[in-house]
Amino acid sequence: MHKDIREGIADFADLLLDAVFLVDANGCITYVSAACESIFGYTPEEMIGKCMIDLVAPADRDKTLQEARAIMAGSQRIGFENRYLRKDGSEVHVMWSARWLASQRMRIGVARDITELKRTQILQAATYAVSDAAHRASDLGALFPEIHQIIGKLVPVAGVAVATRDKHTEEIGFPYQMDTLGNGEVVQETLASQYCAKVVRSKQHLLVRGDFMSGLVDDVAPGTRGGVCLVMPLIPQQEAVGALILKSHAGTCFSDKDIEMLYFVSAQIAAAIERAQLKAELLRAALYDDLTGLPNRKLFRDRINSALARCLRAKSRMALLYVDIDDFKRVNDSFGHAAGDGVLQEFARRLTQCVRQVDTVARLGGDEFAVLIEEIHCPEDALTVEAKIREALVPFFIIGEHALRTSASIGIAIYPDHGNDIERLIAVADQAMYLHKNSEK
Ligand SMILES: Nc1nc2c(ncn2[C@@H]2O[C@H](COP(=O)(O)OP(=O)(O)OP(=O)(O)O)[C@@H](O)[C@H]2O)c(=O)[nH]1
């Protein structure tokens, strides 16, 4: 009986581009048409007698068995999708239409290779996901984990590292590294940066045997038990902004198709990174002083407001110090603007060293600086900081070949002793600073 049906369909089934299968009640393949070779990589002779489920990708086995049971219970199914492992180990996505032939006690199924279609769908989804992540992520730090997730849906990866190139210094940095176990170290940075620099220059990917952690790397084609590292260039338009390092699982490698797909997605990722970098730069320019790197007046006011809210809640004290360099104009006039810039930078550095990391030092403009000290116990604590600042200014400022002396006028306002709101506190600190300056003149 079985033989009859096989003979009946063989005449035309071998002409079909889809593969026709007959599978018995035990799940064994009893017949398959010629197209199986192009879809699964096995000849019909190699497939017949095999258990169908053994060829299914492990992750899809449960749902496939469930589907087979439904068919054998009499339902006719069209459009079931699962993945198989081809003879060469690669994955093939298959769409099925199948029914149970009760009289023959066999399933008849028609398998269509939808790998390319799936790839297009996956690429489309990844492209959308990257652009969505780029819009949602508040900064680069939030963008990188999302990129990791998106890549993980495209290709199996054991770890991801993002390398970015500094436009000015050409240095390679690693703002993101994460493996599947949650370890934040995927590559040894010194070693990996050499490969990334190569990829940034050539704009071509590199497939490296071994991993960047152990240092055992080899620029040879893959195929080792230890897995490989794929270094992809991140090119938004012309210049590479960095590189993406993808670590494969042990014993696996990335296929040419994977790499082709990753080139496409990497370009989208690169554009998202470039956009986030630009956003960060704009934000930085809006909130920080270019010369000293300190928060500017706008950010300082914001910090005061946040600190006031905290003080109100905790019923604590804080101090505002206005600090203005004395006779700064003379530095510019006598030694030039560049020397003046040098003094401002050194002044900022010394001020910053006088306070804790949680405190804020800002440049309000010109030679005017300000310090915000939170959680002081008594007004005298602010005087201690003032004394510290004066002491820090005692050593000569060595600017180029010049050794300069610098002093400053400092005004203090304490919350809540001198006022409850930002305007009042600023006014008190400013007036106190000018009082001090005038008394020195
Ligand atoms: N080099 C340099 N100079 C600056 C910068 N911003 C402002 N200045 C100069 O800083 C000087 C500030 O002068 P003044 O406000 O008179 O202050 P001063 O000379 O310290 O006088 P007093 O405050 O009364 O002690 C001006 O000469 C500005 O041109 C800057 O970014 N770099």
The fraction of residues assigned to DSSP E strands is 25-35%
Structural class: alpha+beta
Small molecules bound: guanosine-5'-triphosphate
The poorly predicted ranges are none
CA gyration radius, whole angstroms: 34 Å
Q: Count structural domains.
A: 3
CATH 2nd-level architecture of the largest domain:
2-Layer Sandwich
**Mean pLDDT figure:** 91
What share of the residues lie within helices? 40-55%
Helix tally equals 14
User: So, the CATH homologous superfamily of the largest domain?
Assistant: GAF domain
Largest sheet: 6 strands, antiparallel
Give the distance, in angstroms, between the N- and C-terminal Cα atoms: 115 Å
Q: Spatial order of the strands in the main sheet?
A: 7-6-11-10-8-9
| Shape summary | elongated
Strand segment tally: 17
GO molecular function: catalytic activity
Protein name: Sensor domain-containing diguanylate cyclase
Pfam families: GAF, GGDEF, PAS
Organism: Zoogloea oleivorans
Structural commentary:
By secondary structure, the protein is an alpha+beta fold. The chain has 3 domains: 112 residues, PAS domain (Beta-Lactamase), CATH 3.30.450; 169 residues, 2-Layer Sandwich (Beta-Lactamase), CATH 3.30.450.40; 144 residues, Alpha-Beta Plaits, CATH 3.30.70. It is 44% helix and 25% strand. The strands form 4 sheets. Strands 7-6-11-10-8-9 form a 6-stranded antiparallel sheet, with helices on both faces. Strands 2-1-5-4-3 form a 5-stranded antiparallel sheet, sandwiched between helices. The chain is elongated, with a radius of gyration of 34 Å. The chain starts with a helix and ends with a helix. The model has no long low-confidence stretch (mean pLDDT 91). Bound molecules: guanosine-5'-triphosphate. The site of guanosine-5'-triphosphate has 15 residues, from strand 12, helix 11 and helix 12. InterPro entries: DGC-Regulatory_Protein, GAF, GAF-like_dom_sf, GGDEF_dom, Nucleotide_cyclase, PAS, PAS-like_dom_sf, PAS_fold.
